[in-house]
Design goal:
The chain is about 5% helix and about 50% strand. The chain is mainly beta. The radius of gyration is 42 Å and the shape is elongated.
Length: about 725
C-alpha cells in the first residue's frame, strides 16, 4: 500500500511540473495570456485566458467617467463555438496587474466591464470605470474565451488581436494557446551555423498531443540528408514515454550507436506509454558533414507511427570563414592630407566556431594613399578562446604630428590557438588613418584577404579633398602685363580643413606668369582668419597665406580679390593652371617638395593671342606647331586630304584663342566657343554652323587614329582669322 501511495504522489508531482511549464508568469508584463494552453485543432476546444490592462497606471481612474470600447478578435481559422456566449461570467479581475494591485475589484468588475457585442470571431467590451475603479491600482480585466472551434489551417500559435486604439488599454497581438494538428507535434530548436566536423545540431522534439498516443512497438525515425552522418555524442532523452535501450536519457557512443543508427536513419522503439500527461522524446543530433555536402541548411525528416512526416532544419553547414565588417556600419568622412582621420571599429568575426585555427591569417590592407597611424600594437592578444598576433608591413614614410616616420598600410592577424566554442570576434577599435593629399575623392576601400580564404573589399571611409578652388577664367593675352583674372575663391569642404598647425597656404602661378601685386583677402564664410598674405619669394609667382586661426563653426570661404597677373610671350595658348599647396592642407607628405607635387590644380584664366598677331604655324606631317614663335607639341600631326589641310581640333582651337573649357564634343558634334562666336561641325558632314547660320564646306571633319581632325581654313575663317599655305606650312593670322 505504501508503495502505491508513493507512486501516486510521484505521478501527481510529474503532472504538476508538466503543467507549470505550460503556464506563463502571471502578469509578467501588462496585457497578455495568463495561461498559454496547449490544445488540438477541432471543435469546442479551450484556449488560454487573456489579461487586458491599461498601458499607464491611473489612466482609467483619471478618466473614470469616460466610456471606452475594446475589441478582441480571434485569429483566422478560429471562431466561437455554437452556444458560447461571452458574458459577465467570462470576465474577472485578478488581484494584481504587473507590480500593481488591480484597480478593478473582482466582485464589481462586471459593473465596469460589460460585453457590448459579440460575433463569430470577435467580442467587444464596453468599459467605464465610474465608481468601480480605484485610484491606487492599475486597471485590468481577464477574459475567459470559453469554447472555440479551431480549424486545421489555424494550427500553430493562436494569437488574439486586441484593438484598443484611443483607450488607456494596450493594443496588439497576444499568444493565448498553441494548437497542434494530428496526434503528435514535431519541433526543432534554432538551427545554428556549424562546421563539418562532429558538431551538435538543434534539438528535435517529438511530442504527444494527448496521453498514450504512442503505443508499445511504435517507431520514431529521424532521417538525415545525403552526405550528413550521425556521430557519437548524439543525445536522446524521454519524458512520460519509454524507449527501448534508453533509460530516461542516453548519449550514443561508438559502441552503442549501431543499436539505433542504420545508415542515415536513427530509429527509436517505444516500449512504454504515457499515462497522466502527454509524453515527449528529444534527440540532439551530433553530425558530420562530408566534403560533398554543399554548404547550407541541414534538413532532417522526422517520421514514424502516429507522426506526420515532418522536415525540420537542424543546422546550417558553413565552411570555415570569417566576416570582416564595420561595427556600426559607419562609413566616416576622411579628409585628404590629414594624418589622424578616425574610422569605425572593424570587427573580424568567425562565421563558424574554430574557423580561426592556428596559423590561419586575415590581412587588412589600405590603398596606396592611406596608412594606419593609430592601431593596436604589434604583439599577442587573447579574445575569448582565441589567441592571435598582430603585425604590420607595407610601410611608407609620411609625416604624422609634424614628424616623419614609417607607417604601415597592411595589418596581419594570425591565429596562434583557438579553444572557443562560440564564434570568436576580434574588435579593432580606436583606429586612425592618414590619407595622402592627392588621394582620389570617394570610397576608401580596404582589401581583406589572408590564408583563411576570405577575399573582399570593405569600404571604411569616404575621402573628401580639403578645399575646392575656382577662378573666374577671364581671357588674358600673351605678352601683356597687369591683367585682371578676377577673384580666386578657396572653399573648405569641411570645417578646419585649412589648419593653423600647417601655418602656410601657397598659391602658385603657372610658368611664365607672375602676380602683378599681392591681392586683398576676404573671408566671406566661416570664422577662418588670415594673419598675412605676401609674396613667398622674389620671383612674385607664389603667394603665401599665413593662417592665424582655423575655422571651427562651419567650412570657411576665402576670396583673393581681383587678382592681377603678368603673362610673358612663352606662355602657351589655353587654360592657365594655378596650384594650391602647403602644410596647411597637407600634414602627410614627407617633404616640402612632395607637398608641392601634391598640389591642387585649378584654372584661373584663359591665355589668348593678341588681335592682329600671327596666331600659329602648323607644319604638315609634324607634331610641332608654333604660337607667336613659341614651339608647342601636339599628339597628332596635320595632313592634307582632298586638297584641304586637316588639323587636330584641340590645337587648332588653342591657336584660335578657344580655351579647353570651350571645346565640346557630343554625339559626333564638335562645338567651339570664343566670346560671342559659336561654331559647330559634325563628323562626316560638310555642314558648318556659325551662330546658327548654316553653310556648306567642300570637305567634312573626320576621326583619324582616334583624333578628331578639322579642315583648318573653314574653322579659322569662321572665327575671323585668315589662312595661308606655303612650303608645307599652314599659317593662321588673327
Amino acid at each position: 500500500m505504501k508503495l502505491k501511495k508513493a507512486n501516486k504522489i510521484v505521478s501527481i508531482l510529474v503532472t504538476l511540473c508538466m503543467l507549470l511549464t505550460m503556464v506563463a508568469p502571471a502578469f509578467a508584463g501588462d496585457s497578455g495570456a495568463t495561461i498559454v494552453t496547449k490544445t488540438k485543432t477541432g471543435d469546442e476546444k479551450t484556449i488560454g485566458k487573456l489579461l487586458i490592462a491599461e498601458s499607464v497606471q491611473g489612466k482609467v481612474y483619471d478618466n473614470k467617467n469616460t466610456t471606452y470600447y475594446v475589441t478582441v478578435e480571434l485569429p483566422s481559422g478560429v471562431e466561437f463555438s455554437d452556444g458560447n456566449v461571452i458574458d459577465a461570467d467570462n470576465i474577472s479581475a485578478p488581484s494584481y496587474v504587473g507590480d500593481f494591485q488591480n484597480a478593478f475589484n473582482n466582485s464589481t468588475v462586471d459593473n465596469a466591464v460589460q460585453v457590448e457585442n459579440q460575433g463569430d470571431t470577435y467580442v467587444t467590451f464596453k468599459i467605464k470605470g465610474g465608481d468601480y475603479v480605484s485610484s491606487t491600482g492599475k486597471a485590468g480585466f481577464e477574459v475567459d474565451f470559453g469554447l472555440v472551434d479551431i480549424s486545421s489551417s489555424a494550427a500553430g500559435d493562436i494569437k488574439v488581436n486586441v484593438k484598443a486604439e484611443g483607450t488607456p488599454f494596450e493594443s496588439g497581438e497576444f499568444l493565448v494557446s498553441r494548437a497542434a494538428e494530428g496526434s503528435t507535434t514535431v519541433t526543432a530548436g534554432e538551427a545554428k551555423t556549424i562546421g563539418r566536423d562532429a558538431e551538435f545540431a538543434a534539438q528535435i522534439k517529438v511530442e504527444e498531443n494527448a496521453t498514450s498516443t504512442f503505443e508499445n512497438g511504435d517507431e520514431i525515425k529521424v532521417v538525415l540528408p545525403k552526405d550528413i552522418d550521425w556521430a557519437a555524442g548524439t543525445k536522446i532523452s524521454t519524458v512520460g514515454v519509454s524507449v527501448e535501450g534508453v533509460s530516461g536519457s542516453l548519449t550514443l557512443t561508438t559502441s552503442n550507436i549501431d543499436n539505433f543508427v542504420d545508415g542515415d536513419t536513427l530509429t527509436l522503439k517505444v516500449n512504454g506509454q504515457s499515462s497522466d500527461v502527454p509524453g515527449f522524446v528529444t534527440i540532439t543530433p551530433k553530425i558530420d558533414a562530408e566534403d560533398d555536402f554543399e554548404a547550407g541548411d541541414v534538413e532532417a525528416t522526422v517520421k514514424g507511427d502516429h507522426i506526420n512526416s515532418t522536415d525540420v532544419v537542424i543546422a546550417k553547414i558553413a565552411d570555415y570563414d570569417v566576416d570582416v565588417y564595420l561595427d556600426d556600419n559607419d562609413v566616416k568622412q576622411v579628409v585628404a592630407g590629414v594624418d589622424d582621420n578616425e574610422i569605425d571599429q572593424i570587427d573580424v568575426e568567425e562565421t563558424v566556431p574554430k574557423s580561426f585555427v592556428d596559423g590561419r591569417t586575415v590581412t587588412l590592407t589600405l590603398p596606396s594613399y592611406a596608412h594606419f597611424t593609430q592601431m593596436p600594437d604589434e604583439g599577442s592578444y587573447t579574445e575569448g578562446g582565441l589567441t592571435y598576433t598582430i603585425s604590420y608591413d607595407k610601410t611608407d614614410t609620411i609625416r604624422v604630428n609634424g614628424t616623419a616616420g614609417d607607417y604601415p598600410r597592411k595589418m596581419t592577424i594570425r591565429a596562434t590557438g583557438n579553444t572557443g566554442s562560440d564564434n570568436e570576434k576580434i574588435e579593432l577599435d580606436n583606429l586612425e588613418i592618414a590619407v595622402d593629399a592627392d588621394a582620389p575623392a570617394g570610397d576608401l576601400a580596404m582589401e581583406i584577404a589572408g590564408t583563411l580564404g576570405v577575399e573582399k573589399e570593405l569600404v571604411v571611409a569616404k575621402v573628401v579633398t580639403p578645399i575646392t578652388v575656382t577662378g573666374e577664367n577671364k581671357d588674358v593675352k600673351i605678352g601683356v602685363q597687369n591683367q585682371s583674372i578676377g577673384d580666386i575663391t578657396i572653399k573648405e569642404n569641411v570645417e578646419g580643413a585649412i589648419t593653423k598647425d600647417g601655418q602656410y597656404l601657397y598659391i602658385k602661378a603657372p610658368e611664365g606668369v607672375t602676380f602683378t601685386e599681392v591681392p586683398k583677402v576676404e573671408v566671406t564664410a566661416g570664422n577662418f582668419e588670415v594673419d598675412t598674405i605676401k609674396f613667398a619669394d622674389a620671383n612674385d609667382d607664389v603667394l603665401q597665406i599665413e593662417v592665424d586661426s582655423e575655422s571651427t563653426k562651419e567650412p570657411s570661404t576665402i576670396v583673393l580679390k581681383d587678382v592681377k597677373v603678368n603673362v610673358d610671350r612663352t606662355v602657351a595658348v589655353g587654360a592657365m593652371k594655378f596650384s594650391v599647396y602647403g602644410r596647411a592642407i597637407d600634414e602627410v607628405s614627407e617633404t616640402d617638395s612632395d607637398v608641392e607635387d601634391n598640389a591642387i590644380k585649378f584654372t584661373a584664366g584663359n591665355v589668348v593671342t593678341p588681335a592682329g598677331a600671327v596666331s600659329a604655324v602648323f607644319n604638315i606631317g609634324s607634331g610641332i606647331y608654333t604660337v607667336n614663335g613659341v614651339a608647342q607639341v601636339m599628339d597628332a600631326a596635320p595632313y592634307i586630304k582632298d586638297g584641304r589641310t586637316y588639323v587636330p581640333v584641340r590645337y587648332l582651337a588653342y591657336a584660335l584663342g578657344v580655351s579647353e573649357d570651350n571645346i565640346g564634343f557630343e554625339n559626333g558634334v564638335v562645338t567651339l566657343t570664343k566670346g560671342a562666336t559659336v561654331v559647330k561641325l559634325t563628323i562626316g558632314s560638310t555642314a558648318l554652323d556659325v551662330n546658327g547660320t548654316a553653310s556648306t564646306m567642300d570637305v567634312a571633319p573626320e576621326i583619324n587614329n582616334g583624333r578628331t581632325m578639322l579642315p583648318a581654313r573653314f574653322v579659322a575663317e569662321a572665327f575671323g582669322a585668315t589662312v595661308g599655305y606655303a612650303n608645307g606650312q599652314v599659317v593662321i593670322n588673327q
